[in-house]
Amino acid sequence: MVLISMLLTAGIAFWFYRTAERLGSKAMHWGVAGAIAYQVPAWAWMMLVSRPYMAGIRGVAAKTTLSASLMSHSWVVVGILCAWVVYRFFLLKTTVKDGAAE
After folding, report:
1. What is the pLDDT of residues 3-45, one digit of tens each?
2. pLDDT per residue as tens digits for the range 52-64
3. Contact present, 68 and 27 (Cβ < 8 Å)
4. Which residues of 54-63 are buried (b: 16+ CB within 10 A; e: fewer)?
5. DSSP letter string over 67-84?
6. DSSP code of 1?
7. CA 44 distance to own-chain centroid
8. For 79, left (φ over 0), alpha (ψ -120 to 50), or beta?
9. I need a surface site. Which of 10, 43, 56, 71 has the fewest CB within 10 A?
10. CB under 8 Å, gap of 24 or more: what pairs does 81-89 form?
11. Distance (Å, rounded) from C-alpha 99 to C-alpha 71?
12. Long-range Cβ contact pairs of 82-88 (< 8 A, separation 24 or more)
């Protein structure tokens, strides 16, 4: 799961970078913002919701159910959704003033 998260972080950072470049905004700043927009909510969800839920499930049979599997991987979805919200409502609405882009 960590490999998938690393690949997603790199992909989201590149996606934000290219979009900011196309819009004439500061691409490096937006690339870092994209990585943060994915990682922070994903890790927060994993630590505050997903892990306590999984720790509360008793027995091996209960941990192999579909709901347990979905919950243990839900932090990836939360991170992707948060990154999309930042992309949609912040990055795409940026305006570039003269001389602001590098």
Report:
1. 999 999 999 999 999 999 999 999 999 999 999 999 999 999 9
2. 888 887 666 666 6
3. no
4. eeebeeeeee
5. HHHHHHHHHHHHHHHHHH
6. -
7. 11
8. alpha
9. 56
10. 82/37, 82/38, 82/40, 82/41, 82/42, 83/12, 83/16, 83/34, 83/37, 83/38, 85/37, 86/33, 86/34, 86/37, 87/15, 87/16, 87/19, 87/34, 87/37
11. 46
12. 82/37, 82/38, 82/40, 82/41, 82/42, 83/12, 83/16, 83/34, 83/37, 83/38, 85/37, 86/33, 86/34, 86/37, 87/15, 87/16, 87/19, 87/34, 87/37
Indicate the length of the chain as a whole number: 102
Token pair of 78 as six digits: 């939360």
* Two structure tokens written together for 93: 């609405």
